[in-house]
Amino acid sequence: MKSLTxxxxxxRFARLGDAFxxxxxxxxxxxxxxxxxxxxxxxxxxxxPAQADQPEFAQLFAGHKLWSAAEPRAxxxxxxxxxxxxxxxxxxxxxxxxxxxxxxxxxxxLHLKGAGQTPYSRMxxxxxxxxxxxxxxxxxxxxxxxxxxxxxxxxxxxxxxPVWRETQERAAMLLRLAPSHVRFGHFEYxxxxxxxxxxxxxxxxxxxxxxxxxxxxxxxxxxxxTQIVERNAELIAYWQAYGFCHGVMNxxxxxxxxxxxxxxPYAFLDDFDAQHICNHSDDAGRYSFSNQVPIAHxxxxxxxxxxxxxxxxEALRASLGLFLPLYQAHYLSLMRQRLGLLGxxxxxxxxxxxxxxxxxxxxxxxxxxxxRLGEQPPAQAVANLRDDFVDLAGFDQWATDYCARAxxxxxxxxxxxHRMHAVNPLYVLRNYLAQQAIEAAEQGDYGPxxxxxxxxxxxxxxxxxxxxxxxxxxxxxxxxxISCSS
Length: 486
Known about the structure:
Elements lengths: L20 E3 L9 E5 L1 H6 L10 H6 L12 E3 L3 E3 L2 E3 L7 E8 L5 E7 L14 E2 H17 L5 E13 L3 E11 L5 H9 L3 H15 L9 H23 L1 E2 L21 E2 L23 H15 L6 H8 L2 H16 L9 H12 L6 H8 L4 H8 L6 H16 L5 H9 L9 H12 L4 H10 L30
Antiparallel strand pairs: 1-3, 2-9, 4-5, 6-7, 7-10, 8-10, 9-10, 11-12
Helix pairs in contact: 3-15, 3-16, 4-5, 4-7, 6-7, 6-8, 6-9, 7-8, 10-13, 12-13, 15-16
């Protein structure tokens, strides 16, 4: 394991030059103190977990110090925000400090969020606040633990530096990791500013660094776009299967690598509601839970438009046509696993759709339903879940069909329970749990956020003394308003 001073940097994106990013130094925050760190994320950099206890750790991730081999850059990009094109966005509060090369030969972006003003801050102060930093940290690591493709979060650092949002708050910094922070909006920027040479350079960079298997194809750019479609189809299937609402699916928040990042007003569903809107600024419900599938397709279409100088339109259309069938196949596979079904049956799609229709309006806890379904044999489990539903006759018919479907497979309850518990989490990042941890952290008590992070790092395993994290949320906890403000 390495110390902080032993990290090896290989800053591939910085070498692309000033057309792609601007050199900016982080602005320190005062009185830096570590709120929480992820040892699992530190391991991606080969860092010894004990390094988090060193004073230098908080100083590096609060802008007070910088590795000599780091090359901090603010990336430029554009994107479609709530359906409207914004020609110039970029890292307004974030900095790509550099790319660390680990012992396994992997490159990891060190991206510091809340690092101060950049040329792309658009009248903002370039800061992040503690609540949003904690929320993104928890979400990144919780999604990863669930098996959902995601950027990672290494640590949150708090400070005494004041910032103004709706009220006065305190600045914080989040260090996040990803193999790349290139997003759909990077390609849109060079397309709409009519910079075809830079567009091609960016595409070549992504091919070389992240889609090397496409380079040998007859049409490498087209092959890369096909993979982007495939990765995003799988990602959205995970979101829908696990009830995750992103909240701000602007094209500048969509990763070329098909991972979840740029967490804002996200939420996991408590009571199942297909129309749930987790962003209280989203008045029209553009990014509601049920809209995430068509919006992902829409964003891929926007990316396809940006790639037209490099790929034939018909080839782009053909790749786009793969999205919905791939999504449906991934989603169906995930939901079969959640229901404990081993094989495939032509009736499974209808069985799943009927269940969700019954859940709608019945105040059924989405995560708990699947966990409880695996606790006992099918007939006993559905009998214990029955009273959660409003349409009892409808549920009884579904339960009969489900039990018949489950009985069609050779299985025993011990194996079924083990299999279902391995994909159905006991602990989920609920907004009220995050809010309680945030409120404690804002008072200087970091114990709750660290404990919550620890619990969510093993979401499928029952942990002694942590029962409260598995309980249904109180009524007030189901109606928290979360905004994009950070």
